[in-house]
Design goal:
This protein is an alpha/beta fold. The chain has one domain: Maf protein. It contains 6 helices and 5 strands; from the N terminus they run αβαβαααβββα. The protein has a 5-stranded mixed beta sheet, sandwiched between helices. Helix 2 links the parallel strand 1 and strand 2. Helix 1 packs parallel to helix 6. The longest helix has 20 residues. The radius of gyration is 15 Å and the shape is globular. It starts with a helix and ends in a 9-residue tail after the last helix.
């Protein structure tokens, strides 16, 4: 049986001495919860911020109001600023961020329910990915957390092209 995503990520972070921080919105701390389900995660997980409202994204993660006003919370631009903010706040080697629309309300034609953006900020580059999940709120949050952990694993395994944003 394959190790869980959080175990695989944790093993690589531990082996390499890399410190991780998170910035979560739509997942409400689910990614951090899964990371801390792994015994010994305090060796590599510095902490996370659940920044749900615009005010929290601006105050805690230094996301600019201009970015939020122009692009909204669920955007390439915002998750990049969230990841940078988490990395700076926690003095982490790498940071991941996630923002999306878990539903059942809140979707638009441009950003329907299930739209999720995830970013990674690291010394060697920054990357974002957009996802579209279906299902109820719980299912979308769970799939979004899986996607964030898989994105981190892809980074740690060297599967991301350099400086791709």
């Amino acid at each position: 049986m394959a190790a869980s995503l959080e175990n695989q990520v944790g093993n690589l972070l531990h082996e390499r001495g890399i410190k991780l921080a998170l910035a979560e919105s739509c997942t409400g701390g689910l990614v951090g919860s899964r990371i801390t389900d792994v015994p010994g995660s305090s060796e590599y997980f510095l902490g996370g911020v659940v920044a749900y409202a615009y005010e929290a994204k601006a105050a805690l993660l230094n996301v600019s109001w201009d970015t939020l006003d122009r692009h909204g919370a669920v955007s390439h631009e915002t998750v990049l600023e969230m990841a940078r903010g988490a990395r700076n706040t926690f003095h982490a080697d790498i940071a991941a961020s996630i923002s999306g629309i878990a539903g059942p309300a809140g979707g638009t034609l441009d950003k329907p329910v299930g739209t999720i953006w995830i970013a990674i900020a690291a010394p060697d580059g920054e990357w974002t990915r957009e996802f579209h999940f279906s299902g109820n709120r719980e299912r979308i949050k769970s799939r979004a957390a899986d996607a964030a952990l898989q994105f981190l694993l892809d980074y740690l395994e060297g599967k991301l092209k350099q400086n791709k944003t």
